[in-house]
Amino acid sequence: MRADAGDGWTIRVAGFDPANAARDESLFALANGALGVRGGIDGVDSASDGAFLAAFFEQAPIHYHEKFTGFALSTDTRVPVADAKHVRVVLDGESVSLTPDAGLIRELDLSTGRFRTSMRYTAKGGTVEITTDRLVSFARPGLLALRLTVRSLDYTGPVTLLSDLRWGRRAEGQGDDPRIGVSLGAGGVDSFPVVTDGIPTALRQTARLSRRTCLLRQDHVPGHGLSADQPFLTLDSISQPFHADLTPGGETSLVKFAAYAWADQDGDSDGLFATAGATLAAARSAGWDVLAAEQADDLARFWADADVVIDGDAGLQQAIRFNLFHLYQSTGRDGATSIAAKGLTGEGYEGHYFWDTETFILPVLAFTAPHLARRMLEYRIGRLDRARAHARGMGHSAGALFPWRTIAGDECSAHYPSGSAQYHINADIAFAARLYEEATGDSAFLYAHAAEMLFETARIWPQVGHFNARKGGAFTIHEVTGPDEYTALVNNNFYTNAMAAAHLAHAADLYRRMGSDAPDHLSALAARIGLTDAEVALWQRAADAMYLPTDPDLGVSPQDDDFLSKPVWPFADTPADKYPLLLHYHPLAIYRHQVCKQADVVLAMLLAGDRFTPTLKRRNFDYYEAVTVHDSTLSPSSYGILAAELGDSEKAIRYFTETARIDLDDLHGNASHGVHMAAMAGSWLGIAWGFGGLRWQGGIARFAPLLPPGWTRYGFGINWRGSRLRVTVDPVGTTYHLLSGDALTIHHHGTPVTLTPGQDTAIAHTPFPVAVKAIIFDLDGVLTDTAEGHYQAWQRLADELGVPFDREKNEALKGIDRMGSLERILAGSAVTLTDAEKLAAATAKNGYYQDLIARFSPDDLFDGVRDLLLAAKAAGLKLGVASASRNAPTLLTRLGIIDLFDHVADAGAIPNPKPAPDIFLSVAQALDVPAPACLGVEDSMAGITAIKAAGMPALGIGDPAILTEADAVIGHIREFRLDRFVRPA
Ligand code: BG6
Ligand code: MG
Q1: How remote is the CA of residue 709 from the centroid of ligand 2, in Å?
Q2: Which ligand is closest to the CA of 790, given by its number?
Q3: Which of 8, 139, 645, 867 has minimal CB crowding within 10 Å?
Q4: In a 3-state reduction of DSSP, which class is residue 262?
Q5: Is 921 helix (H, G, I), strand (E, B) or coil?
């Protein structure tokens, strides 16, 4: 949007473009978790404007032509309620409408939580300026307050204000886009004005089928010179008129309060009338200024913990605050509501809660507003009985299965392949509960309230999976759908398996902990739900044996049993206007191909990341990035975070930007239906989990901050187990500031650091760019991808020898010379070989390896290597190669770069192999450059150790968590920008 980024606290738009009116209503929506009011304005008629209550929705039956057992019976649809925000201005009989020369300004103030407008209107009697100021009170659920001022510039004449409660708005139809709403059939909203002594005093609305009821009243404080008339009724509004006379320079104002009250079933009108009346009376006695101050105070508390600062990109600064504001205002605060896919800003996705709520949104709140995260868990816990009923409907004799999409708690998805089949929602809710416990330390809440839900949901996994004899007894899960909705009904969806394993292990752990910490509660709970030690032991066994394979040919995690066998989607033949694919192709056409709507394996690499190696993460990132179209707004954030973890800061910033600006720039063209809560949450995750590198384990928060290119500084807040922490990262280093709480130990790039309350702890980044005269490169895994070739050759040999070996074991062999590698492989096994046999084995391995590199050509150089080498030479740097591989000269020749090096070490002539420094020292000597004036570049732990032992600065390629001794780590050689790391000495 053309919003002025200003000071980063406002979204300010001048003028009005009718084509974007509906989008702007979403962006400027105000809410408090219970009530949401879209940001339409007076003087514009809009069919998409409106208001919503989190608790007010219709429940219409789903009609199937072919209906099978267990299909969802009805769908909840959050429908618009009467809109109370309008006050029409009439100047001497002429209704004010928005004109092109009105000079309209709209401004959402993120620090005070108010939406303001100003415009001018010229009538017969002259020109007036009209300003409005609006809030939806955080402190008072159900209350909308606004102040309208009409000031005469040169107008003389009467002014009438008509303060409306309007109910003409109908729910939107779905049309051909499944992402909007549904047809309500016989459902809908009936509106009944409440008339007392001939005067309309309130409006009652009832959803015809769900019988949910709400009631709306209004009250006013007229400003000087404004007199009230009798309210009157029209076909679709109650209007309260006020009159005044204006002369140039004069003004009149009106403060309006509107109160909504609601009830589940056929709420008693008198009760609702009284509740709304009490809200109005309290608001009136507080007055506008107090309400505005309350609002600002509430937000000030939120921002004190949650604010994110980004220096160096005003558009991103604005976006991240805008996103956090929407998350905060959209979250249910009563434990009976949660946060819908579009919050309370529009009708998209019918106001449903999905897995987004727990996977993306709840984590943000767990770290920034933990009391709200707890409320979200309470919402799920309160729906446990419905989840049990859903499980029975799906044929499960025990346990609970949460529905894919819902408001009241029952499954509302009519398309089970991408709906109910997404069993991972059970594991996602468990993930959120686990994270909440880690971040807050609030185990008492888990024991007392969440344990039953976590146990009941864990029970589902053994009913959809089994110990599979054909997979060596591994626990396999069948006929489910993972997060990627462009693939449905599969066996062993990698994400589902990984998240189910974590869920089962945590449930078993919780059971054990409760056994010692809360034994009485546990035994009562176990008795109530019939849970035994044997069942919990089964969970642990299933978690331990979970099937999480690596494809032997591609070295990636298969998204499911068949995914990698399918043809890749014909991307080259798909024109841009065929995206999103879901609107243009039959689901089966999509399911038959390798094409991902969104992160699936990549998300598993994040949310269950502690069990996967950096090599696997990198390979998965590269592989799945090539087949992911990001048609879901949930997707880019996950890719951005993993890119940051892999040190690929350029991709990280690209995905982050796409996530952060998704609504402000309307990147998916459908912000008109409401803003995208999960992407908004994803932008915060991109800061904290991505650039900040926040992870957690065993009660310890771990950070691995990096500063993305182009930014001069960023900072974010974290609530961690009762402490409030701010993390600021700039070009010099990272500063941790403990705002409150006891001394706290965190990890910074793997090193424990203890923080003292009130004090800054500053940790400098490494001193890049360094002044050097030479760069000494490792070869395998740095300049080309032979690391995989070495692995394949060792694996083949190990299989022949009957020695256990896998990718994880291979990780430790990187940089280790041939015989050293063989010794290490044999050391972990029962096999012993004579020296002659060892020589033969090593020779055999080398044969396999040479077969592979015989096919190498300059095309196999990693991206950017040739340019990098040429640039380094042009800058006058000497270049060397220090590879432990005796095949290095052959390989460099095949790659066509041998002539670019001033010296290539002869691995066979170096007495002590890596991690000893010898090879790097010998290259430095041959180059005639002192060791400290050489930069070493390596992808292996042994190599980094060797470089540091040689007294050289070390640049790692790979995972910072593994290459901990490196002075800096980048994900890939293509990110080696010479000016960033090297200053020719
Ligand atoms: C290193 C590789 O570069 O060279 C190791 O990282 C390998 O995996 C070593 O074992 C020796 O290679 P070669 O070609 O001499 O067997
Ligand atoms: Mg290497």
Answers
A1: 26
A2: 1
A3: 867
A4: strand
A5: helix
Q: Report d(CA 976, CA 650) in Å as an integer.
A: 11
Average pLDDT over the chain, rounded to an integer: 94
Residue nearest to atom 2 of ligand 1 (CA): 815
Per DSSP, 174 falls in state -
Residue 876 CA to ligand 1 center (angstroms) comes to 30
Reduced DSSP (H G I as helix, E B as strand, rest coil) percent helix, strand, coil of the chain, to 5 = 40, 25, 40
| Tokens linked to 608 | 């269950």
> Among the listed ranges 64-68, 276-280, 606-610, which one has the minimum average pLDDT value?
64-68
Residue found by looking up tokens 């609970």 in the block: 400
Q: Which atom of ligand 1 is nearest to the CA of 779?
A: 3
| Residue minimizing CA distance to atom 15 of ligand 1 | 885
Which own/partner pairs from 566-574 qualify as long-range (CB within 8 Å, at least 24 positions apart)? 566/592, 566/593, 566/594, 567/592, 567/593, 567/594, 568/593, 568/594, 568/595, 568/627, 569/593, 569/594, 569/595, 569/627, 569/629, 571/595
Distance from residue 793's CA to the centre of ligand 1 (Å): 11
d(CA 474, CA 165) in angstroms, rounded, equals 62
pLDDT tops 60 at residue 3: no
Burial 727-752 (b: 16+ CB within 10 A, else e): bbbbeeebbbbbeeeeebebbbbeee
Residue from 211, 747, 161 nearest 736 by CA: 747
Q: Which ligand is nearest to the CA of 886?
A: 1
How far are the Cα atoms of 116, 609, 814 from residue 131, in angstroms, in the given order?
7, 51, 68
pLDDT of 885 = 96
Q: Please report how many Cα atoms fall inside a 13 Å half-sphere around the Cα of residue 311, on the Cβ side.
A: 8
Q: Is the pLDDT of residue 1 over 50?
A: no
For the segment 480-507, what is each residue's pLDDT rounded down to a tens digit?
999 999 999 999 999 999 999 999 999 9
Tell me which residue has its CA closest to atom 13 in ligand 1.
885
**Phi, psi torsion values for 60, nearest 5 degrees:** -105, 145
- Helices 533-544, 494-517: axis angle to 10 degrees equals 140
Cα of 946 from ligand 1 centre, angstroms: 15
Give me the phi and psi of 103, to 5 degrees please: 65, 35
For the CA of 883, the nearest ligand: 1
Q: To test the ligand 1 pocket, which listed residue (825, 885, 890, 893) has its Cβ within 8 A of the most ligand atoms?
A: 885
pLDDT for 5: 60
> 737 is written with which tokens?
């500031």
**Active-site entry in 378, 437, 485, 658:** 485
pLDDT at residue number 613: 84
> HSE (CB half, 13 Å, CA atoms) of 871?
13
Ligand 1 nearest-atom number relative to CA 886: 15
**Ligand index nearest the alpha carbon of residue 783:** 2
Report the alpha-carbon distance of residue 860 to residue 254 in Å, rounded.
72
**What is the Cα–Cα distance from 47 to 540, expressed in whole angstroms?**
54
Name which residue sits closest to atom 12 of ligand 1, judged by CA: 885
Q: Looking at the CA of residue 781, tell me the nearest atom of ligand 1.
A: 6
Ligand 1 geometric centre to CA of 223 (Å): 84
Q: How many CB atoms lie within 10 A of CB 100?
A: 8
Sign of CA pseudo-dihedral 236, 237, 238, 241: negative
SS3 sequence of 566-611: CCECCHHHCCHHHCCHHHCCCHHHHHCCECECCCCHHHHHHHCHHH
Is 438 a catalytic site residue? no
CA distance 720 to 304: 14
- Strand-pairing partners, residue 220, are 256
- The answer to whether the CB of 892 falls within 8 A of the CB of 923 is no
Place of tokens 């046999």: 837
The atom number, within ligand 1, closest to the CA of 939 reads 6
Ligand 1 surroundings by CB, under 6 angstroms: 779-780, 790, 813-818, 821, 846, 883-887, 907, 940
Residue of 817, 846, 940 best suited for mutating to test ligand 1, as the one with most atoms within 8 Å of CB: 817
